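Recap quiz, item 2
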Amino acid sequence: MAKLGALAELVGGELIGDPALEIKGVAPIDRAGDGEITFLSNPKYLKKLGDCRAAAIILPTGVEAPVAAGIVCRNPYLAFAKILTLLACRRPEAKGVMAGSYVSPSATLGKGVTVHPGSVVGENVILGDGVILHPNVVLYDGVVVGADSLLHAGVVVRENCRIGRNVIIQPSAVIGGDGFGFAPDGEAYYKIPQVGVVVIEDDVEIGAAACIDRATLGVTRIGKGAKIDNLVQIAHNVVIGENTVIVSQVGISGSTEVGRHCTFGGQAGVAGHLKIGDNVMIGARGGVSGHLAPNQILSGAPVMPHRQFLKAAMTFSKLPEMRKELSQLQSRVQELEQLLSAKESTSQ
Amino acid sequence: MAKLGALAELVGGELIGDPALEIKGVAPIDRAGDGEITFLSNPKYLKKLGDCRAAAIILPTGVEAPVAAGIVCRNPYLAFAKILTLLACRRPEAKGVMAGSYVSPSATLGKGVTVHPGSVVGENVILGDGVILHPNVVLYDGVVVGADSLLHAGVVVRENCRIGRNVIIQPSAVIGGDGFGFAPDGEAYYKIPQVGVVVIEDDVEIGAAACIDRATLGVTRIGKGAKIDNLVQIAHNVVIGENTVIVSQVGISGSTEVGRHCTFGGQAGVAGHLKIGDNVMIGARGGVSGHLAPNQILSGAPVMPHRQFLKAAMTFSKLPEMRKELSQLQSRVQELEQLLSAKESTSQ
Amino acid sequence: MAKLGALAELVGGELIGDPALEIKGVAPIDRAGDGEITFLSNPKYLKKLGDCRAAAIILPTGVEAPVAAGIVCRNPYLAFAKILTLLACRRPEAKGVMAGSYVSPSATLGKGVTVHPGSVVGENVILGDGVILHPNVVLYDGVVVGADSLLHAGVVVRENCRIGRNVIIQPSAVIGGDGFGFAPDGEAYYKIPQVGVVVIEDDVEIGAAACIDRATLGVTRIGKGAKIDNLVQIAHNVVIGENTVIVSQVGISGSTEVGRHCTFGGQAGVAGHLKIGDNVMIGARGGVSGHLAPNQILSGAPVMPHRQFLKAAMTFSKLPEMRKELSQLQSRVQELEQLLSAKESTSQ
């Protein structure tokens, strides 16, 4: 529960209506009711306001709307996120090391830590203040987890990997599994030991069942603020730049270095040993097989400028027709050639 | 062990031979032997019957075959499944709350429940009659699991998600992980709290390591009877219709609504905020980027009618050849044009 | 720590310099320093040797380089792997059945076994000598694990599956989940019991969160020495040949048989009921929809010879241009035809 005036202040927006209005929750525009605030991020949904029964509305600057109570701000979506955080999220009270968990005597635990049942904390692990390990998390020996990080149930972090502060890892993600490295030895393969680590910097989020492999030698690094979705594969020795966003089921192959503030659409794939510049955006399913300069929007496999891909993809379904037309054209040109050649002979 | 007559009755088929024949197992047509029943679902395998040593055979209606013992029915594959269930599957006896599991005192457990070692049942969880939690399942606070549902080892269900009756979840699936939602805040991203839930209706099956994200607000819903394979990604606020089948490694993006009785082939992908009608079939690797009317069979990326895709895909490998032919044709036409233009000049 | 002479002997290479030189570690060519050995597998990096501060270098036979200490051998990458194994990997001492694990009294454990906390070993399980189960591994009833195999945290092996000797399974992999089999029964689907098993032969490695489904009837088999990366899907009744390599996020559909020594690039997909010959190499994202003869390098979807695919893929982005050129050409040919037809009429 919060007052509308306080919420406007929280998001740095301009108040419309009574600052004392009590807001108790957040809801989508078509479902919000008494005591609830909603948001309009895109002016194209303005017409939905007619039926809206929300107590207050967050509007983007510059939109004219007959609203009795609300907040006007530059980024309604961000404001919505901040208000939802305030109203709906509360960090649970610390519960300490709970019965049924296994914490090595050599581990170092900060203040206000929670270790749920079934979690296993290995030798010499260091947990910062306020760390929460949900049930059945496994931290191998030598793992470090920074303050206020939250590891959901079933997460596994292998030996010596380091996780920063304020990191969130969704259930069953695997941090520090062996990289996929084998040296051919005749018909068979010899395993290359993977003795490096994974370093996850502050403010990163990792999705459910995502896999971040440890380096062969050295470090696989996920830069500060990066967001990685479910079932993503990050191979050994990859470096992901700060604030880069990687959507579900993407795969990044070994030793590739991705810049800052890139975005990879779902199911995209990147080959190994590449350098991807900053601010590169790859569409869903994009396939990257070469180095990429910064500041590009690309799609397709192999990737090309996004607009070019859209045109090419549209044309793809016409291929059989084009082939037929091409063949007909060849016949017609041949006829013309024969006709002219016949004329030549006649006229000689 | 069952008598052939009883099996014929079970599947609503017509008996051939001795109703008292004892059947002890089911095996593939080329491996079945004494006491075993096999099935022929496709008449094209009729010639395999010659070498078949099975005690009895399930045949489709209308197929003429010199079989001494068997069952004739409309759907031999379904009959095979039902007979296999009878002969090979037995629900284990309930074992109660086993040593080494952690069940909150505030949880409510039905009759005949089994909670294996290492499983963690949170506060206010409700388990219906006959629920089985294999080892190391984690149910966060407020989860509800309907009667006779079976959760395999390592499954995680996060807070307040609701699972129906007779649901099967394969190992390490993650239900209710946070949706992937972040609001840009300058260079960095601000996490949008994911305070909705997942609702899985009755008779659903979810594959190993599949991830079904909770809604931002509201519900991510998997409709009654839907079947979801391993490593599938279902994003926040998605709705999957009843009896829809989603094969391995498919990804469905946020807020998309899929109709009833659809089928998605392996590795297909669907963009967000789309509506897919009932009875839509998407081929393996299909990429859906727009709304889809019901009753279609589509393939390709972006999807097109399946037959058209097959032709276009066949033509794709001819592209370099086509380009060369096109270029040659341009030269030939240019020559013709020059020839005619020269003639024009001469004749003037 | 090892002497250079001993390392040369280990890898069957020719020694350069002092055999008594002490080597304490392995590092990449641009980071190696005092006491460290590095390797040069590709002569194109020869120029890096100028700045290299390594104590010794592993060189490929036939490369001329002014090196004071090192080893010359045919396969420097393999030599690197063997030396790294010697210097950096030590099998931990056996710890027995640790507190907080749950081992059925009917299980049979070999010598020198380690079962970490949170692991659950079912009825009649057999663990060979030297097996290590990291925390929270679950072995259902009847599972067999061969000597010296290593199962990382959170791995689940379902009932009656058999794992060979010297197998490594990365965290959270799922072995023996139900195959995805359902018989249509009108609008709904009837579950086909999956009563077969998975057999994993010796020397296999399975990646994190990979899923290998049990057979409907019979066996899903992973051949000796095969290497399977993270998040790979192997469906029911698949057979993978010896020493085949399957990179991350590949999916192999039901009942397909893959030969020996094949390689599948990342995110490739294979349809069901196919036979793939030995020594087939499928590029990243390749889509296999038909049987394949042995000894081929293929890419694309559907797959074609790799070189042909590269050319076709390059041409794809030119499609809109080609279509325009084709259309222009049609107009030009039509004009020529009309011109000639007009001449015909005039000359008659």
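The CA atoms of residues 82 and 208 of chain B lie 24 Å apart.
Chain B is about 15% helix and 30% strand.
End of item.
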